[in-house]
Specification:
alpha+beta, 3-stranded antiparallel β-sheet, 27% strand
Length: 146
């Protein structure tokens, strides 16, 4: 099923990919701080999917396991819904947004208490064929809008 054959397009897909071929996946309310998740996501942005999966598999950061799962899901979505080949996919969009913060209290000396923020993240990855990403980069370098 190609992009042109879709009957309905979600607003989320429209904002991430537009009318170009590709797929995305997201993990919401993940109990990892956004700053730590962004360190991992920045490593894989723009890489081919095979390289990104290999990098995430051996990365020492705790967030790499969750990002690995999201990337695998995005690749599976591209294979099943779009019929794209895994070999030529590239991570085109990789973003981490801040989710709700759980507030907890820690007892301190002399009857005081300090707040502990347990932050959550929304991790979103999109994959597209390499030629689509190359064309998008070429048009933005020439000064035209993508």
């Amino acid at each position: 099923m190609s992009v042109t054959e879709r009957r309905r397009t979600s607003a989320r897909r429209e904002s991430l990919l537009g009318d170009q071929p590709g797929a995305f996946a997201s993990a919401r309310f993940v109990r990892i701080t956004p700053m730590k998740a962004r360190r991992v996501v920045d490593m894989v942005r723009g890489l081919p999917v095979d390289e990104a999966l290999a990098l995430l598999q051996f990365a020492p950061q705790a967030a790499s396991e969750t990002v690995y799962k999201v990337l695998e899901s995005a690749v599976a979505n591209a294979e099943t819904t779009e019929g794209l080949d895994t070999g030529d996919l590239v991570v085109s969009v990789a973003q981490v947004d801040e989710g709700p913060t759980m507030k907890r209290w820690r007892p301190r000396a002399q009857g005081r208490a300090t707040r502990i923020n347990k932050r959550t993240s929304h991790i979103t990855l999109a994959v597209q064929p390499a030629e689509v990403v190359a064309v998008k980069k070429a048009t933005t370098k020439n000064g035209k809008s993508a």
